[in-house]
Specification:
Structural class: alpha+beta
Number of strands: 3
Largest sheet: 3 strands, antiparallel
Strand content: 5-15%
Helix content: 25-40%
Shape: elongated
Length: 105
């Protein structure tokens, strides 16, 4: 190969992103994300009956808001949560009550 020869042109491609690992948390049926602008209401009845409380991420997913909104509502006293083992948990019944309060406001 000639030392003065240019290397062959390589087409630029976007970097492949590695697949996200599956999380231990099951996906919630019909739950919306904060980026879902369709206006569809999340189905907070999608959890199994034996689930009494959920973490902030799951509560946010169930309500279709970001985790910061959940934290803000807790700080303002609008949403009750309990800290168990250093992790905030919100009772599913409290999420239902919160939604009812929001609908009547």
């Amino acid at each position: 190969m000639d030392e003065n020869a240019e290397p062959p042109a390589v087409e630029a491609t976007p970097m492949d992103t590695p697949p996200r690992p599956e999380t231990a948390r099951p996906a919630l049926a019909n739950a919306t994300t904060p980026h879902d602008l369709s206006g569809a209401r999340p189905d907070i009845t999608a959890l199994p009956v034996n689930v009494l409380a959920v973490d902030l991420d799951t509560a946010a997913q169930m309500l279709g808001v970001c985790t910061a909104t959940i934290r803000r509502e807790i700080d303002r006293g609008r949403l009750r949560a309990v800290k168990i083992g250093g992790i905030f948990r919100i009772r599913v019944a409290e999420l239902h009550a919160y939604l009812k309060r929001q609908e009547s406001a």
